[in-house]
# Entry
Amino acid sequence: MTATVHRVLPTLQKRHSPLSAAAEQRGALARVPLGQSFEDALEGAGLYPLRATGIDIFQVNVGRKCNQTCRHCHVDAGPDRTEMMPDAVLDRCLELIDTAGFATVDITGGAPELHKRWREIVIRARAAGSEVIDRCNLTITLLPNYAYLPEFFADHGVHVVASLPHYRQKGTDTQRGDGVFDESITALKRLNALGYGKPGTGLVLDLVTNPVGTFLPGNQKALEADWKRQMLRTFGVEFNSLYTITNMPISRFLDFLSETGQVNEYLERLAAAFNPAAAAGVMCRNTLSVGWDGTLYDCDFNQMLELPVHRGAPRTVFDFDLDALANREIVLGPHCFGCTAGAGSSCGGATAA
Ligand code: SF4
Ligand code: SF4
# Structure
């Protein structure tokens, strides 16, 4: 099978869409008349101001380039994006990985493997004793220069977190581009052949699904059982866990909501489903997110909205101070309702399942 670059639509940036600017996105969200602000909802749950509880996960976003242009992408990633973490920032991240003792280093993008020094991050983080998560779109492993990836993942014990909206072709290709589903299945079979997703190998392969539409994800445990049955029976594919993730109303999903006149309705749905238990477990409480230029954020979503960490905290990798960042106040906005609706949503799936 020959891998291709998959396009659903050009990136917002390429289309010169006003929503390619973070300020426009923040403005569009702020204009939605919600019954209560996210801060008020947290106050009611006894969680305001929301503070970090530590930094277990150091999430490094190495750039916005991707071989896909998925319809729902919160990064507005695509083949035409040129932002890539420069050497000085990456070197500083490696220093922090060597010394800060992060339990997990989570590498994301775009397609993070497209960064020419991606392998270095994996090797240094493993040497430092950290778990390494790679957020993989699967099809990257079929591109000619990246066919080495499955073996490299296995050799270094990388925890692969792979996105696949649906176990049926139509649902996945509608969101991610024609041919993505078939290539994803090929990639998953290769990972399985190396032991990924198989009991007793220690090679962890998790899948991430998000709704193909404006509804909340279903029950994570029930969906996982269904996915496991379907993937095994239809394709002979195994995996460890399924994470359900709510579509965040930012970037390309916000553009879709705007084009279809559903911004208010979707935000209202998320706000109405506010769950205090999910709020207590939001990922920003134990994660620090690094942008390609070294700016620090509470999460990848705040990163895309250009909302850096609180003014009182160090704001770049060059000023990193573990103690000052470990209990920082989290920067919030209406988009945060996406993390607290229903069973909650995070890079690790539901937070109150
Ligand atoms: S959702 Fe992932 S695979 Fe799709 S365009 Fe965005 S970064 Fe690439
Ligand atoms: S969007 Fe980010 S800052 Fe807001 S609740 Fe979710 S993880 Fe925390």
In short: The mean pLDDT is 95. The two ends are 38 Å apart (CA to CA). The pocket of iron/sulfur cluster (ligand 2) is lined by residues 282-284, 298-299, 301-302, 330, 332, 335-336, 339 (CB under 6 Å). The CA atoms of residues 196 and 203 lie 5 Å apart.
